[in-house]
Amino acid sequence: MSEYRIQGVTGEWEVVIGLEVHAQVTSNAKLFSGASAAYGGEPNSHVSLVDAAMPGMLPVPNRECIRQAVRTGMAINAQINKWSRFDRKNYFYADLPQGYQISQLYHPIVGEGEIEVILDEKDANSPRKTIGIERIHVEQDAGKLMHDQHPTMSYVDLNRCGVALMEIVSKPDMRSPAEAGAYVKKLRSILRYVGSCDGNMEEGSMRADVNVSVRKPGAEFGTRTETKNVNSIRFVMQTIEVEARRQVDLIEDGGTVVQETRLFDPNKMETRSMRSKEDAHDYRYFPDPDLLPLELDDAFLEECRASLPELPDAKRARYENELGLTAYNAAVLTAEAETAFWFEDLLSHGVDPKQGSNWLLSELFGALNKLGKSLDESPVSPAQAAELLKLVADGTISGSIAKQVFEIMLETGQGAAAIVEEKGLKQTSDTGAIEAVIAEILANNPGQLEQYRGGKEQLFGFFVGQTMKAMQGKANPGVVNELLKKALAS
């Protein structure tokens, strides 16, 4: 897909990348308790006795969390395991009150799947690559240590403790930062379409552990490092560049890459050693004695499958093949779930797909960019946009007047029809009024008229512009063109 190579003293090196993405499951409650899984809140305000590991408390699986994991697996064409089991991963840390994490190692709920990525989503001819998914397992998150609240002590916030995570483990199929970036972007898009994770990396509800190794092209895999908790697509790509370069320099200087866990510092653009990388046996995994295995029946799986929406690849193909949109427009409209849903809402009000897509991507996106707002924060709703576009389509206002009306809509929140009525902006198709203006324009520009009739036909645009200006943009352009041609030919 992309020949990304690192130039070293001894020649070219290839980077091998695998990602473990932790995605917080969309659910009102935590994985094994009824406490709120909402982001934020006062420290330790979303904590049940189960989360705090009080004696005698037993976990109860949250059906919705299991359902969302299964739906995610189905969205990436993965094997859904009807029988799966929870394991205890034993380690001590101050924000883990149980002294272990309930996870899945030996029998995950979702097996192998795949995701197809395009390096440049906006280029119809950009090469595609299929990246394998090894597994998705469900586990509970740990709490959070706060080191800045006291001069000598760290505080513990257990709000996040027990929140349901899907750990989505890729195969080591990526060979460049760009491929890894495309993979995370596509995965986040799928999760948002499915509704199983909001994908807000800045809030920590989706983060990646980045596994990197280097090798001479085609050689055996090298020793990998794992850079933990990278929380943006840009940082994922930078982590790969920095860590791969570090490994190449280390090996060429006669050193050895150590299997370890590292942290990425975006300010210094470096990775730092955190601890040696543990293997599975270091965590003393064993089946959780408090939880029965998960057994999924056919009815549950069918309900999960039936609940899936149209996914981005299918939607993109439909936009191109059925709606006749350009590859570029279809790619941009389907890249993010909120854009696709907004566009679908616009179409539901009877807007022409091509007119609607062009307006959304140019006018609305341009205006929101200036305002520093996201599509979810748009002052203009799909219904209001549809009203504006229909006024253009039926000839009530011109395209240039529509731009003026849209600006007023953004400022005031008024509807398009009300603004047009109030400001007297309706387009006129009154041939008598337009003919009178044309006659005046021709009389005031005898030189240009003589040149036009002498063969300089590009002056036609000049006469159109003068007529529209004289009528303050309210004349119907089609009628103006027709009447001008007649007047100029006489």
From TrEMBL:
Transmembrane segments: none annotated. Pfam families: GatB_N, GatB_Yqey. Residues 341-488 form the Asn/Gln amidotransferase domain. InterPro entries: Asn/Gln-tRNA_amidoTrfase_suB/E, Asn/Gln-tRNA_Trfase_suB/E_cat, Asn/Gln_amidotransferase, Asn/Gln_tRNA_amidoTrase-B-like, GatB, GatB_C_1, GatB_Yqey_C_2, Gln-tRNA_amidoTrfase_suB_CS. One of its GO terms (biological process) is glutaminyl-tRNAGln biosynthesis via transamidation. The keyword Cytoplasm does not apply. The keyword Amino-acid biosynthesis does not apply. It is an enzyme of class 6 (ligase). Its EC number is 6.3.5.-. Keywords: ATP-binding, Ligase, Nucleotide-binding, Protein biosynthesis, Transferase. Signal peptide: none annotated. It catalyses: L-aspartyl-tRNA(Asn) + L-glutamine + ATP + H2O = L-asparaginyl-tRNA(Asn) + L-glutamate + ADP + phosphate + 2 H(+); L-glutamyl-tRNA(Gln) + L-glutamine + ATP + H2O = L-glutaminyl-tRNA(Gln) + L-glutamate + ADP + phosphate + H(+). SMART domains: GatB_Yqey (SM00845). GO terms for molecular function: asparaginyl-tRNA synthase (glutamine-hydrolyzing) activity; ATP binding; glutaminyl-tRNA synthase (glutamine-hydrolyzing) activity; transferase activity. PROSITE patterns: GATB. Belongs to the GatB/GatE family. GatB subfamily. HAMAP family: GatB (MF_00121). Allows the formation of correctly charged Asn-tRNA(Asn) or Gln-tRNA(Gln) through the transamidation of misacylated Asp-tRNA(Asn) or Glu-tRNA(Gln) in organisms which lack either or both of asparaginyl-tRNA or glutaminyl-tRNA synthetases. The reaction takes place in the presence of glutamine and ATP through an activated phospho-Asp-tRNA(Asn) or phospho-Glu-tRNA(Gln). Heterotrimer of A, B and C subunits. This is Aspartyl/glutamyl-tRNA(Asn/Gln) amidotransferase subunit B. It comes from Sphingorhabdus pulchriflava. The lineage of its organism: Bacteria, Pseudomonadati, Pseudomonadota, Alphaproteobacteria, Sphingomonadales. The gene is gatB.
